[in-house]
Amino acid sequence: MDHRPLLLLNRVLLRQNPHNVNEWLKRIKLYGEQYDEVIVMYTCAVQTIDPKICTGKLHELWISFAQFYDSNGKLREARYIYDKGTKVNYRHVDDLACVWCAWCETELKHENCEEAIVVRAGLAFPEHVSISEQTSLGISKCHGL
């Protein structure tokens, strides 16, 4: 099937709003099995999207990117993407928690229990922060933890 008209439409939509996560995910899906093109699109998406003004769920893009590498047998690259995804300044703490949880689940899927424990440490509350400070930071509202 010729995806050219869909790619052109998607290009127009991304020109109108380059921070639209859902349109980037649609564009990536249009490339299907073209491994190199998919990686280029993921890379372009994560470099283009501003987390503070994006529409859609940015964490889903990072998780999808990492899972793409994982599904192609490149766990080391998937870990790198998860690590980069944990450094994004998301608007909501839950989004960051989703990235950490997906990373941990990926490690468990590969039976890397030790690595999963290390990743899980990223989900722990800081020891030097009191409960009242956690509440003021919004950490207690994190439903993903």
UniProtKB/TrEMBL annotation:
Q: Which residues form the Pre-mRNA-splicing factor Syf1/CRNKL1-like C-terminal HAT-repeats domain?
A: 51-126
* UniProt keyword annotations, A-Z: mRNA processing, mRNA splicing, Nucleus, Repeat, Spliceosome
Residues forming the Pre-mRNA-splicing factor SYF1 central HAT repeats domain are 1-49
Listed GO CC annotations: post-mRNA release spliceosomal complex; Prp19 complex; U2-type catalytic step 2 spliceosome
Name the InterPro entries for this protein: HAT_Syf1_central, HAT_Syf1_CNRKL1_C, Syf1-like, TPR-like_helical_dom_sf
The main location class comes to: nucleus
Q: Where is this gene product found?
A: Nucleus
Q: Name one GO biological process term.
A: generation of catalytic spliceosome for first transesterification step
Domain of life assignment: Eukaryota
State the similarity comment. Answer: Belongs to the crooked-neck family.
- PANTHER family (UniProt xref): PRE-MRNA SPLICING FACTOR (PTHR11246), PRE-MRNA-SPLICING FACTOR SYF1 (PTHR11246:SF5)
Its protein name is Uncharacterized protein
Q: Which organism is it from?
A: Didymodactylos carnosus
